[in-house]
């Protein structure tokens, strides 16, 4: 592919830093269209292609390496993006044209129970390959415009130290979401507040043991 040789320089064009615990994007090549920022990296769509590049914070080369290895182990499972290339601090993978479940809640896009079952299948298939899925939260699950489910951000799929109960807790939260009285559209402010309370184990019903 003609683009292959360009990936390294596209990744180099991305300047990011961590400020007050959050990633700040400083500059990037105009060919890159920002799609999302997480806690370890920033993701872009490359031009109008079907490719996405995830560029990690400079100090997280090890995480980039680990995530690339895990994508290779997941190769062929349709629920995960295909990994095209990886470098010291970046991954090039399929661009998923869709919305994270977080965006669905913010925009009032209904999440049907069938999507949850699909996520369960995706996790089962990863487990079948000897992995231990973790870090499964609303921003790492995408609903594509074709109506299928994709999981991203698999760097912690090999962490076995602690049991991560996020996905089981989210499924329990879904039983409340399904109730008629529960709002189907939630502002990002409140969603982030709920996530922060959850992380600090301040939501009595959804306590978890991890850090
Ligand atoms: N391949 C992709 N296709 C579409 N969107 C993506 C893709 N990879 C990442 N994103 C978006 O970028 C955000 C950050 O990427 P993510 O891999 O979760 O980074 P982090 O490891 O920092 O959490 C995601 O929440 C999602 O919105
Ligand atoms: Mg993420």
Automatic annotation (TrEMBL):
It comes from the Bacteria. InterPro entries: Kinase-like_dom_sf, Meiotic_Drive_Suppr_Kinase, Prot_kinase_dom. GO terms for molecular function: ATP binding; protein kinase activity. Residues 29-211 form the Protein kinase domain. This is Protein kinase domain-containing protein. It comes from Jeotgalibacillus soli.
């Amino acid at each position: 592919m003609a683009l292959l040789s360009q990936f390294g320089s596209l990744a180099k064009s991305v300047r990011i830093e961590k400020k007050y615990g959050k990633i700040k994007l400083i500059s990037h090549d105009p060919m890159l269209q920002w799609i999302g920022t997480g806690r370890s990296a920033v993701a872009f769509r490359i031009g109008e292609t079907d490719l996405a590049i995830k560029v990690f914070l400079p100090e997280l080369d090890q995480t980039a390496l680990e995530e690339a290895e895990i994508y290779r182990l997941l190769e062929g499972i349709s629920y995960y993006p295909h990994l095209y290339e990886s470098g010291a601090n970046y991954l090039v993978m399929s661009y998923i044209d869709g919305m994270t479940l977080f965006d669905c809640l913010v925009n009032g896009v209904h999440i049907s129970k069938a999507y949850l079952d699909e996520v369960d299948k995706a996790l089962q298939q990863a487990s079948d390959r000897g992995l231990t899925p973790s870090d499964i939260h609303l921003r790492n699950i995408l609903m594509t415009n074709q109506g299928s489910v994709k999981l991203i951000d698999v760097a912690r799929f090999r962490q076995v130290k602690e049991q991560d109960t996020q996905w089981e807790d989210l499924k329990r939260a879904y039983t409340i979401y399904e109730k008629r009285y529960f709002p189907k559209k939630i502002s990002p402010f409140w969603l982030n507040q709920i996530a922060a309370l959850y992380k600090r184990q301040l939501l009595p019903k959804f306590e978890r043991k991890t850090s």
